[in-house]
Specification:
Its EC number is 5.2.1.1. InterPro entries: Ectoine_EutA, Iso_Racemase_Enz_sf, MaiA/AMDase. GO terms for molecular function: maleate isomerase activity. Keywords: Isomerase. With 255 residues, the chain is α/β, with parallel strands linked by helices. The chain has 2 domains: 19-117 and 226-242, Rossmann fold, CATH 3.40.50.12500; 120-222, Rossmann fold, CATH 3.40.50. The chain is 37% helix and 17% strand. It has helices spanning 32-39, 60-64, 70-75, 91-97, 99-107, 118-128, 142-154, 170-173, 178-188, 209-216, 223-234; strands at 19-26, 45-52, 85-88, 114-116, 133-138, 158-164, 195-198, 220-222. The strands form 2 sheets. A 4-stranded parallel β-sheet has the order 2-1-3-4, sandwiched between helices. The longest helix is centred in the middle third of the chain and has 13 residues, at 142-154. The protein starts with 18 loop residues before the first strand and ends in a 21-residue tail after the last helix.
Length: 255
């Protein structure tokens, strides 16, 4: 059989998709990649994930141990090609390591990318609602939650109630059922709070944010909802998606 080489090389697009979002996720993560394929990926936006080493239990020491892997992890996402946004998908580690330190580590590999963390995105979301007094729900232990409470208080938020579920394994956090998330969210919200924040990228809270809002009558910000919102807006997608929660109807600060 004869093989024939085409008479010309094919014309190439600059990119297969117009926008690129890179995810740096934990090796144990069940939720972030699924949520981003559902909420962010589309005909214009590609979502590309890499995983970095992580060992349970969820403790400040284990969370901090991920920091040296961030630059190498970012570099593995479409090597030598620019990304529009890179999101590091761990809320508790973002508190322990620090938003600025994470941005520095990611930009060492992807210097032109905007960097999103769940904590910074959550703060932007809460401020977009004008929330000052908030309720917080986390799946973590009291010890792991303490630094998160300090983080939000340090940024000027008044915490009306902070509820912890006491789990130490992010794989178990991913297995909290949506109905249970709704039930705990209702218990965690005080009448005088302006909004509810549900922490942890492992928790499947983004998918029930609108349900929770209907139940509590207040805006809900979750880790994955906030980062998806930030990534969409940074990629120029301003389409309101009220079925995913009130946050998905708002503009991103500074844009």
């Amino acid at each position: 059989m004869d093989l024939t080489l085409a008479s010309r090389a094919p014309k190439l697009d600059d990119r297969p998709l117009e926008k690129r979002v890179g995810l740096i996720i934990l090796a144990t993560d069940h939720t972030s990649e699924v949520d981003f394929q559902r909420m962010v990926a589309g005909e214009r936006i590609g979502v590309y994930a890499t995983r970095i080493p992580y060992a349970n239990p969820v403790t400040p020491e284990n969370l901090r141990a991920m920091q040296p892997s961030l630059t190498a992890g970012a570099a593995l996402i479409l090597p030598d090609e620019p990304l529009d946004v890179v999101m590091y998908s761990c809320t508790s580690a973002s508190v322990v390591i620090g938003d600025a330190e994470i941005e520095t580590a990611v930009k060492a590999a992807k210097p032109t990318a905007a960097v999103v963390t769940p904590t910074a995105a959550a703060v932007s979301g809460l401020r977009a609602f004008g929330a000052e007094r908030i309720s917080v729900l986390t799946p973590y232990t009291l010890a792991t939650s303490r630094s998160m409470a300090d983080y939000f208080e340090g940024l000027g938020f008044d915490i009306a109630r902070f509820t912890c579920l006491g789990l130490t394994d992010d794989r178990e956090m991913a297995r909290i059922s949506p109905d249970e998330i709704v039930a705990f969210a209702k218990e965690a919200t005080t009448p005088d709070s302006d909004a509810l924040f549900i922490s942890c990228t492992a928790v499947r809270a983004a998918g029930v944010a609108a349900r929770i809002e209907a139940a509590i009558g207040k805006p809900v910000v979750t880790s994955n909802l906030a980062t998806a919102w930030a990534c969409l807006r940074l990629c120029g997608d301003d389409t309101p998606r009220p079925e995913r929660g009130r946050l998905m109807t708002l503009a991103y600060p500074g844009m």
